[in-house]
Specification:
The chain is 49% helix and 0% strand. The protein is an all-alpha fold. The radius of gyration is 19 Å and the shape is elongated. The relative contact order is 0.07.
């Protein structure tokens, strides 16, 4: 594989590169060749990955599912 150095001028470009990394098309490295995400907290890596509205909907769904599970007659 070929390694190149890229200067990021806009946050949108970094997001696109991270999306390409998620698709396993490229790997983002630090300047010294180490994996950029090695040791990175997942809360930092995925901050803002879903909207606040989606997060609330997911949380409500989980809470409703838990209530249904607890209320079942078995």
């Amino acid at each position: 594989m070929e390694t190149i150095k890229v200067q990021i001028k806009d946050y949108k470009a970094l997001k696109i590169l991270k999306d390409l990394e998620d698709l396993d098309i490229l790997k983002i490295m630090e300047n010294d060749g180490e994996d950029l995400h090695q040791g990175e907290k997942l809360s930092v890596k995925y901050a803002g990955a879903i909207s606040s509205e989606t997060s609330k909907k997911m949380n409500n769904y989980v809470n409703e599912s838990r209530e249904e599970w607890e209320d079942r007659d078995i």
